[in-house]
Amino acid sequence: MSNFAQQQAPHRRSAVTLAWRQYRLERKLFWRNPSAAFFNLMLPLLLLLLFGAVFAGNKKYVDVIVPGIAGMGVMASTFSALAFNLTFLREQGVLKRVRGTPMPPASYLSGLLANAVTNAVIQITVVILVARFGFGVGWPKNWIELGIFLAVGVATFGALGVAFSHAIPNFDAAPAYVNAIFLPVIFISGVFYDTQTAPAFLKEIAQILPLTHLIDGLSAAMVSGKAISTQLGSLAVLLAWGAVGGVLAVRGFSWDERGN
Fold it and tell me: What proportions of the chain, in percent to the nearest 5, are helix, strand and coil?
């Protein structure tokens, strides 16, 4: 190993350690905020229990609602949560103060992102368990495909959430901005119904949105068991949205509050 590599190794280990500590702090802060825990974890579960109980005798509908709620949970725990949190941290001056500390920015942001990823994984796990033991839905047909779409979905909506936080002028406006995107998207994308039964113009809009393709991928992995080769189009759309979100997230990121 070269001298440069030997010198850099401790710094990398230190950055990873700091990211892990930030992640642990974020987990503690999350569970100490009941409203955040409810919105990110309990709300999708309650919706699944509600719709699942109403349509328990309709297996076809239950097979639609399970991956739909799972996809909604991923969007809520990444896109919505990150847009809210980063706006709050920016406008409260937390990001600016962190920027002035010795902590590497990558370590701090990694802790925030890992917290969102954890919430998404918890939501998917809870949805699978409730569907299996509450409504008799089988275990996911393709675990590898499920993992791929979960990873790509989390990355895509995480990047879009960070990017969208740049468009929110202040924290007071955050709920209106986020819900103006979140609510129409979950209804158009087929969280609560099969998009094939929607009017033609809604189906065309739905095919543009990333959540539609995440739900399609999760449905194939969890319900139908279709091979991932049949979902490459959905995967490509998600990756394209993720690439756009990643570019906008990096280019527009600001550590300083706007004060307006």
Answer: 80, 0, 20
Cα separation, 55 vs 135, whole angstroms: 10
Report yes or no on 258 lying in a domain.
no
Number of neighbours of residue 182 by Cβ within 10 angstroms: 19
> Which residues, at least 6 apart from 204, have a Cβ–Cβ distance to it below 8 Å?
none
The answer to whether the CB of 234 falls within 8 A of the CB of 217 is yes
Domain assignment of residue 165, yes or no: yes
Taking only the tens place, the pLDDT of each residue in 99-110 is: 888 888 888 889
43 inside domain: yes
Q: Measured in Å, how far apart are the chain's first and last C-alpha atoms? A: 51
Its sign, for the CA torsion 230, 62, 76, 15, is negative
* Residue 256 covered by a domain: no
- This prediction's pTM: 0.88
User: Which amino acid is it at 3?
Assistant: N
Highest mean pLDDT among 49-53, 58-62, 181-185, 200-204: 181-185
Tens-digit pLDDT profile for residues 199-232: 888 889 999 999 999 999 999 999 888 888 889 9
Measured CA to CA, the distance from residue 221 to residue 47 in angstroms comes to 21
Is residue 109 a contact partner of residue 26, using CB atoms and an 8 Å limit? no
Q: Indicate the number of domains in the chain.
A: 1
| pLDDT at res. 5 | 42
pLDDT for res 13: 59
Give the domain range for residue 187.
Answer: 3-251
Amino acid identity, residue 162?
V
